[in-house]
Sequence to fold (861 residues):
Amino acid sequence: MKKGWFQNKNGQGDTEQKNATQTLAKSKDFTKTCYYNQKTNIDFCLTYLTTLVDEKIIEQSILSSLLAGDFHSINDIKKIMPLYDVQICNDPSKIEENLCSGYVLLTIETEEKNYGLIAAKKEIVRALSPPEVEISVVGPKEAFVESIATNLNLIRRKLPVKELVIEEFTIGRLSKTKIAILHIEGITNQENINTVRQRLKDIEFDDISDSSYIVQIISDNSNSPFPQLLDTERPDRVAAVLAEGMIAICVDGSPQVLITPTTLVNFFSSFEDYYLNWIIASFFRLLRMFAVTFSILITPLYVAVLTYHYEIIPHDLLSTLITSRRIVPFPPILEAITLELTIELLREAGARLPTKVGQTIGIVGGIVIGTASVEAGLTSNILLILVALAALASFTTPVYKMSNTIRLLRFPFLLFAQLWGLVGIVFCVCIVLTHLIRLTSLGRPFLDPFYPPRWQDLKDSLLMLPFKERSMRPQFLRTENPYRFSKKKASVKKDIDE
Amino acid sequence: MQEQTIPDRLKISPFLIFYVIMAMQIGLGALDYQRIIAKDAGYDAWISIVFAGTCLHIIVWMIYKIAKIVNGDIVTAHMYVAGNLIGKVLSFPFIFYFLLHSLASLRTLFEILQVWIFPTLNLFWFSLGYMLLSMYVVFGGLRTVVGIAFFSLVLPAFLVFTFFPNLLYSNFESLLPIFDHSVKDLIKGSFHMSLPFIGFEVVLFLYPFIKESQKSEKWAHLGLLATTFLYTILAILTFAFFSEGQLQKVMWPTLMMWKIFKLSFVERFEFIGIAFWNLIILPNVCISIWIGSRLVKRIFKIRQKKGVYLLIIAQLGMITFIHTREEINLLNSLMAKVGFAFTMLYIPLLFIAVYIVKKVKKK
Fold:
């Protein structure tokens, strides 16, 4: 081992390589074993990291063929080895990288320049499981897993065409994370792909452990509470958006695939909508939009009305409201913020605890604390109903990250409601609206199709029109081929009894 | 003549001019114009609105002719007519015009807030908040400003329907007899419509920022038509709802009419209307600041951001000095007169000047 563990002595980067190998050799799992082939009288050594390689492959395929095969020089290994990934190379700089990703290094005493690299990776792959976040009653029940190879396979199977292009490269100085960019040639706008590629290559961060890192790094505006890249765990959704002309980013080790460019409405459409009849789906989407508005505005409205604008409530309703908070000693804003925080605490506690305990906490918190605080006269029961409803409504958002945003948005609205009443609420609406108008995803307007108003894109936004009507790809993507099918064939008008 | 070319990604689609014009027009004077025009033209005043609207179509046509000939905005037109230096000097007063416009819009909004909702509203702090918001909008560029204009029309659009319950209490016979007033009175009424109508002249400043600018002419006319239609209908509804004597005693007829509408959970709709008025005024302020700062940039060759800071500080400084109803009235009538002079007198003059220069240059 003194001379270094590979026999290259004439390379320029020798010292550097030696340093690298010395570091490697410190690890317990670093193994170098020498063998002797009696048939051909050759000494050879195998070097690998035991934690990364599959010992079965070494025993059954590599060693057996090297010890018993017709093995004279490195160049013979391609002939005798029954494995598909066998490389012969002479560049010492590649060794370290390959050893760290599960290759076995083969060296022979007599040959100093060449060595073989044989793939013997130990693949630990989780079995496919049904989606856990984007659950659907109808439609496929498979979700992405942590292995990029499996994920790409899932997508490829849904789009078995030559136009589906998969580009792959590695980012992260320490994590060496594999990333794949997927798009469909002839549909996706080249400018978008270039932007994505450039932004990914510019990533300097050393450890990329999940796709959510990438979301935060490559977003157009990382100071925005709104997510600008959609992450999904459903292969069917990825396939569908690829066909629309969006770009998907797969990250090794992450069961979420990123989709870009996106718009605000993407975050409010569950993929199950597409499996339902358009009338039902449109109803659900409107319901969700209503839920979001309700969830953000209802407590601020309560605070604004009860603090400043009693006049706005009709007499009968006002007496109900007053009765409910007659004995409450706090101003509405304090009452509202306390209750909102309680709900957030319950949610956070439920999320951090193991599932079964979490449910118990939810019930204890929801029922016991709620009832007790009303009976103790600390909060009004009407506000309790409103806050609970608002929390419920915020969970209807199909994308987890967006529902977090919506829950957060409530607090600035509450503050403005306390400050300037209804005027303050509209003021805060203006701020959010401006923020959304200014926001872009990959340089494409985030608020499309509302602003800039695009009639074509509205057909699959708040409402979802039938397939017949959705003949165009989304306009904001600026696709190279805007038509999904020729509409003329589809719209033959029939007369009665024909 | 074009000094700099504006990249396509900063330009706005031609049809958005429709929203820009409507958003800029609706704002100043829209809550009380019924009372003011009825003072002269009585209940024939709706004819004045139609007449004023028709005249303005000619002005819009002139604006597009000027812009087309010089291929640029009003500063380019001035330089085209009078050369570089004098052109800039001529454009200078328009910074104050737009400062005045946004000041008047803002102060009128605050007056309503103070009278109707918050008698103790701190003028300075609220203005500061409003200015910071406008700054955030303007820093987003023209696309954001126009976006706010778009939403300021679309989101409160439902409020229009809340006027319909008034029909139950309306008496349309009070509009009769038609043509009861002299032509002079009607024209006086039309003159008073200048405050609610001004705002369409922004096209002359935004022209280089419109994609396929000439295509937007259709939309400019449509926007003007829509405003005229809205004002006429609202005026007729108002005249049918109030008696002529009562109308003169109502400060803001539009707000008073909202009071009639009632739902089982909302009694006084004008509160919601006033809250939304915030959003309706926002594009007035933002477009004004954007144009004002753009003019500063073009005339003095400094960064537009500095222009925005200047205008905002000026506005914050001035707004705290306007307290009484008389002062606000003075501000509004000044705005009306200046607006009238600019749109009805200056633009035709500029049109003729540009036309003559064009003929001379050809020779």
